[in-house]
């Protein structure tokens, strides 16, 4: 996975812009774009301004019991639009809920995307297809800049495929495992690490900003990268920003266990809809 730099962000934004134009998304003028969560006056073009979910979280899992995904990579949880104050909405448009993401992506010819998701976007409880549908229904429908009204010559579920492509593209720029490994933070049954060590390593791929790191007691299992966005969520420019939620890990003694290959679940095995404890899936 590539190292996360402003230059790579620009390249991704340009590529996504071209992809969005092909997909039929209404184009956004860069001269008129406003960074989400940063407007000082009313914004009228809501297809080019993420609101009210102006903070977008790229969420990743480190699953060890059972282990899911490659032993040398974190896996995808989703892309969540949160309000700029840390609150959030869910299930924002029940009329656009889906139950079979796999078939939607196959019908759109996104077989490469689907194959990648089958390796890096896995469930540890329900089927992967159910997990993907949950992420779209709960979070994707809350991203206002990919509403069907933001498309020209819209076709059914067009925005669903665009959503999953964007989540995967963003995930590829945030190689958590390598960033930690480069800083000497590697999975271990014996070693422990400090929260500051994690934040320093991950800040190197997140514009110097901290992330929200979640622990079950003292064992890390999930993290959130926060962004604000210029333009649409699927062809705009993602700018790293500070977290809106505190980490739940201790300041020291954090365990980062290896994925046990003997307990690794097979492809399409299942993922529970867990997320923020007592908050959001």
Written account of the structure:
It comes from Penicillium malachiteum. The active site is at residues 77, 135, 139. One of its GO terms (biological process) is RNA catabolic process. One of its GO terms (molecular function) is hydrolase activity. With 281 residues, the protein is an alpha+beta fold. The protein has one domain (6-263): Ribonuclease T2-like (Ribonuclease Rh, Chain A, Alpha-Beta Complex), CATH 3.90.730.10. It contains 7 helices and 7 strands. Strands 1, 2, 4, 5 and 6 form a 5-stranded antiparallel β-sheet that branches. A two-stranded antiparallel ribbon has the order 3-7. β4 (212-216) and β5 form a beta hairpin. The longest helix is centred in the N-terminal third of the chain and has 18 residues, at 6-23. It is globular and about 55 Å long.
Put the structure in a nutshell:
Residues 240-281 are annotated as: Disordered. Helix content is 27%, strand content 14%.
